[in-house]
Amino acid sequence: MRGALALALISVAGCRDDVDGYYLQHCFLPMPDAPTTCDAADQKRFVSSVLRAHHLFRDQLRRVDLEDYETPEEILAAMTTGISPPDRFSFLASLSSEEQFFEEGKILGLGLSLRFVGDELRLSQVFGSDEGEPESPASKAGLERGDVVEAIGDEAVEHLIREGRLGEALGPNEPGASVNLSLRRGEGEVFDVVVARDFFEIDPVPVHEIIETARGPVGYVVLRSFIEPAVPALERAMADFRAAGVREVILDLRYNGGGLVSVARRLGSLLAGNVAPNEILFQRRYNDQNRNCLEVDVLEPTRVGLERLDRLVALTLEGTASASEQLIDGLAPHVDVTTVGERTFGKPVGQLGFPFCEDRLLRPMTFQTLNALGHGGYFDGLEPTCVVPETVNAAFGDEDEVLLRAGLTYLESGVCRGSTSLKSRTSEPVVLAMSIARRRSSAETSSSEPRSTRSMESSSGSTDLSNDRSIAR
Which residues face 155 on adjacent strands? Predict the structure, then answer.
């Protein structure tokens, strides 16, 4: 199995609003003073102070001499090394980049993602390829999901893999930086394209449709990330489903690394708010200094949501993380939830955001997420009910696409007909050749509080990230 090579990860931020505000008002601790000079020493002190006060596993943080490290990034890495379970999620980011992505859906990149299927490196996503979706550099170049990458520049993919230079060959994620790709579509000839990185707008809900089956209408919706622009699109989708009498939904989260907790909460209410009104969807617990602090999000009845939800099928892969996992786990006590695909990433924790020095943002792992039954801790991911490897064989929404077909079959017959003969070299995107700006971490703020203590549920590491202002990333 090939290890994942993440070039520029999709970042997921959590719920910016009530999560951070509640935490600051009810849960505790005075905030560390912001750096006054913003020199390296001041920044290192700030990072160390925030970690000591707010990190979920503060008792496991390493004691370090700040003078031994040159940057706040080095301090963050040094202090969180050796934590169990490993801290793969604390990070430093650009505040403005997070704001741009989570509020506007704008990102810098090629507009595609790559995945190994067998021995082939295929385009698993091409942003801008669906009807009505804003174009990306990749879609403008005519690329399609399923295209096979044979070479990057003048070097064969296999050669780059053997030398461990696949990510390097794709080049820096900077505006205007281009990459030469040699690709093959189906059984056709190899063709060459040049794709240059640029800013583009992501459509968080590129596909929603109603599929007629012998059992009745099934709603299918693709959700790429829990960002603010997703809310009106999800409301339109659920209103269409409601009007058509949909009672079974297939929610495609296979490449959704997370995002805003507030958006996940809204989607949960659209799906099940009328089924289990005012029931607990999510719970958040903080570190040992806040053992009595428990935040709760509930399912809210809504006029545009489904009147009834008999069964929910979630399509998942290793890139399904953070807020995506939280939603699946949160709905399970209230509705019949089935997962089809592969094991998810495993991020049952989230991050609050602490801005400092103009455009800097610290997002330490600060809380764990639980469902109404107190279940959480799925650091190894959520195991699928029905194991079906991704083969990138068709467009999203095509009823012959392998995961969608498996989901429909499961709804129709209760039988899992997954293909296990073709195994991916990796169960997650090998390269996410695009950068999704990390969501801002400024929550509802006051001058004495972190401007952005939004909680975030997102997955980090070598897979797609999710964004939640309370970030689940």
Answer: 152
Pinpoint the alpha helices (H) of 93-204: 95-104, 137-140, 157-162, 166-169
Structure tokens at 466: 């999710």
Q: Is 428 helix (H, G, I), strand (E, B) or coil?
A: coil
Amino acid at 338: T
φ, ψ (nearest 5 deg) of residue 186: 60, -130
Q: Which two tokens mark 160?
A: 């780059």
Distance CA(170)–CA(124), nearest Å, equals 16
Task: Name the one residue in this structure whose structure tokens are 């997962």.
Answer: 339
Q: How far apart are CA 316 and CA 261, in angstroms?
A: 18
438 near 98, Cβ under 8 Å? yes
What's 414's DSSP letter? S
321-367 residue pLDDT tens = 999 999 999 999 999 999 999 999 999 999 988 999 989 999 999 99
Distances (CA, A) of 73 to 42, 85, 129, 167, 261: 13, 20, 37, 22, 26
Weakly modelled stretches of the chain, pLDDT under 70:
1-30, 418-473
Hunting for tokens 């690394």 — which residue is that?
Answer: 257
User: In whole angstroms, what is the distance from residue 152 CA to residue 337 CA?
Assistant: 41
